[in-house]
Prior knowledge:
Elements: E1 8-10, H1 15-21, E2 33-35, E3 46-48, E4 51-53, E5 55-63, E6 74-79, H2 87-97, E7 101-106, E8 113-118, E9 123-124, H3 128-140, E10 147-152, E11 155-162, E12 165-169, E13 174-176, H4 182-188, E14 201-204, E15 209-213, H5 217-222, H6 227-231, E16 234-235, E17 238-239, E18 242-247, E19 252-261, E20 264-267, H7 272-284, E21 291-297, E22 305-311, E23 317-332
Parallel strand pairs: 6-7, 8-10, 15-18, 19-21
Antiparallel strand pairs: 1-2, 3-4, 5-6, 5-23, 7-8, 8-9, 10-11, 11-12, 12-23, 13-14, 14-15, 16-17, 18-19, 19-20, 21-22, 22-23
Amino acid sequence: MSGCHCAVHIVRFPDILLSNSGFPPEWREGRSAVGELRTREGLQSSYTGGRHVTRYAFHILNVFTRPGERLSGNPLAVFAAADDLDAPTMQALARQMNLAETTFILKSEVAAARVRIFTPSYEMPFAGHPTLGTAHVCRALGLGGDQLTLELQAGRIPVRAHGDDWTLEAPAPKTRAVSMSRAAVAKLVALEEADVADHPLWVSTGREQLIVPLASEQAVRRAAPMREAFASLECVDGPGQVYVFAALAKGRILARFFYPDGQAVLEDPATGSATANLGGWWLAMQRPRPTRLVASQGEYTGRPSLLTLDVDSQSRIFVTGAVVQLAVGTLDL
């Protein structure tokens, strides 16, 4: 509308994104900053129902994708230049996007960006695929290069890239013993006590989860979360989450991850935080290192994924996955 002088977020989209997205070149002006209104089509403040509407840019990505499969992995939405959004609005936007997680990029004085992570129901201090996907967007926006640090609630997370493969270094793990019996652990996922192969352990590299080693690939495939059993499973971070895995050949594992959401228990396509926690379990069990494990996850969600875990000789934990950007767009508030 003519005569409007309100401020909006002007987000710079790099040429490589613009060339494939249909956005006009004029949208490149400004970079993750609040600037004057620019009367470009599609990037302006307007009146709807007698109020100002502000337009926010977002990116849609898949993280932990399989080679050549752009629609594999775990989906993510990333909002850039989100400093003026409060937590309730971020939560509402995450519910609107209705993906496993939605992240928001904010300014940071100690890192390339500060990042807040929301599921449709709650905020998370740390998660793997949002960290890698947000780093990918930060690089595209010029907020960092192939090596950068993100400020999360769980702390500063170093991230590096080799092409579109991104690696995070997880915080040092914390572990604690499981008080329930092995039979009770097995019951969480409708298995028998004999299906649990080794010591289950609570592990946290940012979000505590129950890591459960299983005796066979078939046990992983049979696993089915029992809602009634999950209802009483609590950890230091709230409702309990369970990661089951079994060794395959040549350093590969098959993994599944279950988490409560309201009255349901859902399965995640690819869980970077749980893969990092598997590294903590590996250290606690005093398994050989350095080691590399390649985890297949997501088959039973229709989103097959690949995650790589490295535990080095210095007991550092790294999680790697491929990131694919599918779309950039805008949302009006």
